[in-house]
């Protein structure tokens, strides 16, 4: 892959458009000095720089996955909007995936298949990259199971790590391996790679819900599996509902639109355990993530490579169906 001279992004006056040539494709970038994160001074050029530098590990996680653009044209303090339909003004070399909505109407989602496409999306102020759990063309086959651990204040990332370790024990008991990453916001996410077919969202959704309900039953003071926000105070909501063909989740290595340019970052189980024990904060900004890649490589690589079969564990959803509090 062509090495893009990202230093050139900061050598312009930031107002006039610049053109980057990436593998023979010309990508126009604009307003590079525009501040997107006012509290840290992180600019649009810094955003593009980050995505260029992280691309070698990010792009494999985006391959063939339709994405929803989450655009912040005025930066993190301005309004944002989701853009499911890939913009009509896109370059001809941007690939799309046609997905039928429930009403039968199709949506042409963008896919980020190479570095040029990634820079193009970043130039559109797509700060956050949200992807589905399936890949084209198998749009009904999830490649992983995802748990989104969301703390209800005053609970925080520490309590999320405690619950993550409980999930790890359950997975180990049924010979499954999971991988953790920060959400880049306040929570933690666990992915269980599958990468085997056939498996359906009906199966993965029931599996994830079963584990969430089991945790709530066994640890009611720590865990909630129900959606109602008023029930979450001081607990960790184990969101199993992300395992749905229509839902997207923030992608690993994506920036988040917070006060600082935090990143959804893979972490080791040792780091999760240390955070739980020491009651420390587990959060990383863009420069820290790039340093981690240099030292640790892609800790999330197994999520797209490891093959695991979903065991006959879906009985959990049925087991607790009669006990579920309505």
Largest sheet: number of strands, sense, barrel closure: 6 strands, antiparallel
**SS field, number of helical segments:** 8
Number of strands: 18
Average of per-residue pLDDT values: 90
**Percent of residues in helical segments?**
25-40%
| Shape summary | globular
Short description:
With 326 residues, this protein is an alpha+beta fold.
Explain what you see:
- The protein has eight helices and 18 strands.
- Residues 1-8 and 317-326 have low confidence and may be disordered.
- It is 29% helix and 23% strand.
- A hairpin with a 2-residue loop joins strand 1 (18-22) and strand 2 (25-29).
- The strands form five sheets. Strands 5, 6, 7, 8, 9 and 17 form a six-stranded antiparallel β-sheet that branches.
- With 326 residues, it is of the alpha+beta class.
- Helix 1 (44-62) packs across helix 2 (115-123), helix 1 packs across helix 6 and helix 3 (157-173) packs across helix 5 (269-278).
- It has helices at residues 44-62, 115-123, 157-173, 201-218, 269-278, 286-296, 301-305, 315-319, and strands spanning 18-22, 25-29, 35-37, 42-43, 66-71, 81-83, 96-100, 106-111, 126-131, 134-135, 138-142, 144-151, 179-182, 188-193, 223-224, 236-239, 249-250, 266-267.
